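Minutes, project check-in
Item: structure for the 303-residue chain
Input as provided by the requester:
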Amino acid sequence: MCGICGEFYFDKSGKAVLEKVRRMAGLMAHRGPDQEGFYVSRDQSLALGHRRLKIIDLSTGDQPMGNEDDSVEIVFNGEIYNFPALRAELEGNGHQFKTRSDTEVIIHLFEDEGVAGFSRLSGMFAFALFDEKSQRLVLARDHFGVKPLFYFFDGHRLLFASELRALVCGLGYLPALRQEAVFDYLILQYVPGPETIFEGVQKLSPGGYLLADRTGVSTGQFFSLKPGAVLEKEMSRGRAVEELRQLLEESVRGQLVADVPVGAFLSGGIDSTTIVALMKKIKGSGVKTFSVDFSALGGAAEF
């Protein structure tokens, strides 16, 4: 879990304030205790901040990270599970990698395919890319919105952050509460997107992207979940079970790629026990699990 943030001014009269972005990043130190990094564009219209929790490529994967000539910079929160295959393809296209990290794969994929390439990323992610040549900022969030990303745009500047309190720090004032959002939270225990509890602050949609340049801001989707799944082929129950097993094992195998120990939360439910069983099958011994007892709260049956 990392934290990203930034500020982008749309007119040349405004300058991104690095110290402000430092404060925003500092409020997310719990998300990334291992390293912090910052980037300011040549014309000082943009500042990016990053707090890193090291998972892959511990020594050279620090951020912000650039491409070969540092004309494209990224701050990234998450993990890309299919990055080895994408890296091999991109190296075949002539890209030269400076690190072993999954972060660098996103940069070169964007260079080759633009926002359309984001649909090929298998993982959980939220990131900001800045193209110095085109003076364009791109925000993106994973297919199902696992990783958070909030933003504020007033026609003059764009602020974004992984957490609301970091974004509010960048604003410099506490926005008004949305009455509808308060009702939503009391009834649903969450605020449905793309709105948030604050006026003028939005969540980037799952599978969505935001483009920002001197002309303004636009949003779109690189992925949308189709309502109602349709079987592409008829299959027996046994075949369906086997295909599901293969898909689950492939998913778990991809998520075990790390340069630090990987564990799992284990309850009495079929989901976590299935995942841990597959971890054991793939890794053999040494799978660490953690369980939490909520019995004191009543109504919990995790054990």
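Outcome recorded: The chain has a mean pLDDT of 90.
No further action items on this chain.
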